[in-house]
Design goal:
Elements (H helix, E strand, L loop, with lengths): L1 E2 L4 H5 L27 H10 L3 E2 L8 H8 L7 E4 L5 H8 L3 E6 L2 H13 L5 E6 L12 E7 L10 H11 E12 L14 H7 L4 E11 L8 E10 L1
Parallel strand pairs: 1-2, 3-4, 3-6, 4-5, 6-7
Antiparallel strand pairs: 7-9, 8-9
The structure holds S-adenosylmethionine.
Length: about 240
């Protein structure tokens, strides 16, 4: 079973019967205080999605992440935030990096762990059930954080708290790479469209935005890849 993204209308209409927490990715757009952990129904959506194969779970690393690695832009240790079923983490571990993948969907972490048990990687990979808004509580620091598809799931009021959470676990000079749906996608399908200013507004003090480039996110949607931003952001 394929679980797709919600329509924009579903996301916009919070009173819609389609907004049953078990079936919508509109859960990506919760109104929740920025300091609160991710709401339970947001994660019910993802747990439900991972009972099948969500359209973002392509069974291989994202090309953008692979290109970053081959360009030498990534330094270990790496934190893969919202790692899903772990393909990006496992790929980076296969290159010899030490990687921790975290996700708040139990089903995703279980699938990632099962893959890790079956694959031999030259680096080290571990997966943990963890909230991206509470990375400071991990008690570790990383030189790189990758975010493939999480940022666009956060409610706007959660983004600054997410940036602060990332700031707490990246060492000075470390980088976060964010790959997210961009505002260049046609309206009507998918999660929230992110504008460059949404990224700039979330990563203000304590960060230097080095680039926000056009890229693509590969999906299992009929269209295949969708327009994405790849943001390169350095922790000061
Ligand atoms: C679109 S999926 C992308 C998954 C994976 N990075 C990939 O490329 O396949 C977004 C992921 O973010 C996770 N997520 C959403 N909110 C989260 C939070 N507050 N903390 C940790 N993970 C979260 C979801 O469970 C989901 O696995």
């Amino acid at each position: 079973m394929l679980h797709g993204f919600p329509t924009a209308a579903m996301v916009a209409d919070t009173n819609s019967p389609h907004n049953d927490p078990g079936t919508r990715a509109g859960a990506c757009r919760h109104r929740t205080p920025a300091t609160e952990p991710a709401p339970a129904n947001q994660m019910q959506f993802f747990d439900h999605a991972y009972e099948g194969t969500p359209t973002w779970d392509i069974g291989r690393p994202q090309g953008a992440i692979a290109r970053l690695a081959s360009s030498g832009a990534i330094a270990g240790p790496i934190l893969d935030v919202g790692c899903g079923t772990g393909e990006n983490s496992l790929y980076l571990a296969s290159l010899g990096y030490e990687v921790l993948g975290v996700d708040l969907a139990r089903a995703a972490i279980e699938k990632a762990g099962a893959k890790a048990a079956q694959r031999t990687v030259s680096g080290r990979v571990d997966f943990r059930l963890w909230d991206a808004l509470r990375l400071d509580e991990l008690g570790a620091t990383y030189r790189t954080a990758i975010d493939s598809g999480l940022f666009h799931c956060l409610a706007p009021e959660q983004r600054a708290a997410y940036a602060a959470s990332l700031h707490a676990v990246l060492s000075p000079g470390g980088r976060v790479f964010i790959l997210c749906w961009s505002a260049r996608n046609p309206f009507g399908l998918g999660p929230e469209r992110i504008r460059k200013l949404d990224i700039r507004g979330s990563f203000r003090s304590g960060w230097s935005i080095e680039a926000i480039d056009e890229d693509s996110l590969e999906t299992l949607l009929p269209a295949g890849a969708v327009h994405a931003w790849l943001a390169r952001i350095r922790r000061i």
